[in-house]
């Protein structure tokens, strides 16, 4: 596979382009962590359709990140996250506009099953503050539609209003 655009998804409740967009955001974040920390090993992405679910796993060795630095809490429901709020503005300013805090947000919007964990050298879950974090693992799941079931319309990134 040369790109996410080549993935043929089964029938899903959201458009395949949104799934690819969410995956690209997450993989891009993992690749950036590898580049910034000089990690030479690949970011691993597994995509599987089974048991009526599209399952995705992303595993990197980028040494994780401090969840308290995100502009929202990891366990916060996605419908309560304010993209235009002060926390996002401060996050963008802190990183000089080079980070937007959107990867996890978009994935949480697209995938009903979202689980992020930090892993140690054996790829076993460990707490962020343990000092043993080697990387990040993200497990995602999206139901596969049965024939005749309509997909839902979803726009994971709200339209920004143009200034007058």
Strand content: 15-25%
**Biggest β-sheet, characterized?**
5 strands, antiparallel
CATH superfamily placement: Histidine kinase-like ATPase, C-terminal domain
Distance between the termini: 44 Å
Order of helices and strands: HEEHHEEE
Query: Outline, from the CA principal axes?
Result: globular
Averaged pLDDT: 87
Structural class: alpha+beta
CATH class: Alpha Beta
Strand order of the largest sheet: 1-2-5-3-4
Please sum up the structure shown.
The protein is α+β, with helices and mostly antiparallel strands and 164 residues long. The chain has helices at residues 16-36, 86-94, 103-110, and strands spanning 44-50, 53-59, 113-119, 125-126, 135-143.
Explain the overall architecture.
This protein has about 160 residues and is α+β, with helices and mostly antiparallel strands.
Q: Which properties best describe this structure?
A:
single chain; 164 residues; Heat Shock Protein 90; 20% strand
Set out the fold topology.
Layout: H1 16-36, E1 44-50, E2 53-59, H2 86-94, H3 103-110, E3 113-119, E4 125-126, E5 135-143
Antiparallel strand pairs: 1-2, 2-5, 3-4, 3-5
Helix pairs in contact: 1-3
């Amino acid at each position: 596979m040369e790109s996410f655009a080549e993935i043929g998804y089964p029938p899903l409740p959201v458009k395949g382009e949104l799934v690819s967009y969410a995956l690209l955001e997450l993989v891009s974040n993992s690749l950036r962590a590898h580049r910034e920390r000089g990690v030479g090993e690949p970011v691993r992405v597994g995509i599987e359709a089974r048991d009526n679910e599209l399952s995705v796993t992303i595993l990197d060795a980028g040494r994780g990140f401090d969840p308290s630095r995100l502009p929202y809490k990891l366990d916060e429901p996605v419908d309560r996250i304010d993209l235009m709020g002060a926390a996002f503005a401060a996050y963008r300013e802190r990183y000089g506009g080079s980070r937007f805090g959107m990867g996890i947000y978009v994935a949480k919007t697209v995938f009903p099953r979202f689980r992020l964990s930090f892993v140690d050298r054996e790829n076993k879950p460990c707490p962020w503050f343990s000092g043993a974090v080697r990387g990040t693992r993200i497990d995602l799941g999206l139901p596969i539609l049965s024939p005749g079931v309509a997909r839902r319309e979803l726009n994971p990134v709200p339209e920004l209003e143009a200034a007058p």
